[in-house]
Amino acid sequence: MKRSAGLLLFRRAASGIEVLLAHPGGPLFARKDDAHWSIPKGECDPGEDDWVAAQREFSEELGIPVPPGKPIPLGDAKQGSGKVNVIWALEADPGPFEVNSNLFEMEWPPRSGKRAEFPEVDRVAWFSLGAADRKLFGSQRPFVAWLAAELDGSSG
């Protein structure tokens, strides 16, 4: 079974908790918004530790190092495809940065025989927990609820 690992940054803003989400790059998502954002994540290599994969994917997709801090395991959830996402949360605000994502290649335009490269992530943004619930792909929405429950139960 394929696994993806990711890292959900959160910060405490005047209006409440905010999470950092990534918008997928490439022409298929260019005009899509609600229900098309993602937690920065990617596939684990065979035998790779999930937390190691989460850190690697975060850095590859955003182009910045993982900020220091203590990760909070949020658990895992299965996508419709059967792939399992395992996600950690980390309280950190890396400040302003320019996304410098790794690239992927695909045939574009479709059936043209031409190949083009696109960034895996074209932009990131901070969202309130309510807005994140609208923006995220459906299979990733439980992680926002789990983060909220974790923070409600914490003393910090």
Indicate the topology:
Elements (H helix, E strand, L loop, with lengths): L2 E11 L2 E9 L16 E3 L6 H13 L9 E7 L5 E8 L11 E5 L7 E5 L1 E8 H7 L5 H12 L4
Parallel strand pairs: 1-5
Antiparallel strand pairs: 1-2, 1-3, 2-8, 4-5, 6-7
Overview of the molecule:
By secondary structure, the chain is an alpha+beta fold. The chain contains three helices and eight strands. It has helices at residues 50-62, 129-135, 141-152; strands at residues 3-13, 16-24, 41-43, 72-78, 84-91, 103-107, 115-119, 121-128. The strands form two sheets. Strands 1, 2, 3, 4, 5 and 8 form a six-stranded mixed β-sheet that branches. A hairpin with a 5-residue loop joins β4 (72-78) and β5. The termini are far apart. The model has no long low-confidence stretch (mean pLDDT 94).
Quick summary:
The chain has 156 residues and is α+β, with helices and mostly antiparallel strands. It is built from three helices and eight strands. It is globular.
Number of alpha- plus pi-helical segments: 3
The ordered string of helix (H) and strand (E) elements is: EEEHEEEEEHH
Assembly form of the protein: single chain
Termini separation: 36 Å
According to DSSP, the number of beta strands is 8
Largest sheet properties: 6 strands, mixed
Strand content: 35-45%
Mean pLDDT equals 94
> Helical proportion?
10-25%
| Cα gyration radius (Å) | 16 Å
Structural class: alpha+beta
Please state the overall shape, judged from the principal axes of the Cα atoms: globular
Unreliable residue runs: none
